[in-house]
Amino acid sequence: MWVKWIKRIPWTDLLLPLLVFVAVGFAWTKGYDSGHLDAQRDGEQRLAQLQSQFDTYRRESTERHNEALMAIIGRYNAQVAAAHKADADFQAKKQQLERENAELKKQIADVTRQWVDEKGRRHPIECVFTRGFVQQYNAALGVTDTHNAGYLESTAAASASAGKATGTTDTALARLRDSGVSQADVLANVTDNARQCRVWREQVNDLLDYTEGLHQ
């Protein structure tokens, strides 16, 4: 009975739609697979391009960062070298001034102990510096303490009031007394003060040169 019904099925009419269905299914599957592969390939290419762009950006950014860092290090090293050179120059100039000061002090005795008149006769130098002179000398330098640099005091036993500032309780007569300070003391004090001023001048000049170099 089943065989009879099967024989009655119009296989010829069904075969064409079946073939069409199979062909459509095959084409769709083929197209899907092809589209999927194309999309995957395009995606991978795009991803590779993005990765390449990112790598290039990261490399260039690193190079710029390194160049900037090296420039900063270069400027810092130059500043350190300039500071060391300025300090070395200052120390050399200071030592030179110390030597010059020592040589000048060696000559003080030769020009303060005696003098020669027109006939070539030698005379001892008798020069008196009063207490008031010494007081005003020290006041003009802005020092009134014997521990201050630049203070004028006799190398011998000077009067205890020699370092007092103008306007103290000393009487006018006491201010006119011998302070015990000699020409040699005054010249030695001027020599020391001049040396210190020259040291400060060199120090300030070197500092100005260094600060100007920082802005170049």
Order of helices and strands: HHHEEEHEH
Please give the number of β-strands: 4
Inertia-based shape: rod-shaped
Annotation field: number of helices: 5
Strand order of the largest sheet: 1-2
Alpha carbon gyration radius: 51 Å
Mean pLDDT: 78
Proportion of strand residues: 5-15%
Low-confidence stretches: 155-169
Helical percent range?
Answer: 55-70%
Distance separating the two termini: 112 Å
User: Main sheet, how many strands, which sense, barrel?
Assistant: 2 strands, antiparallel
Topology:
Elements: H1 2-8, H2 11-106, H3 108-112, E1 114-116, E2 122-124, E3 129-130, H4 131-141, E4 178-181, H5 183-214
Antiparallel strand pairs: 1-2, 3-4
Helix pairs in contact: 2-5
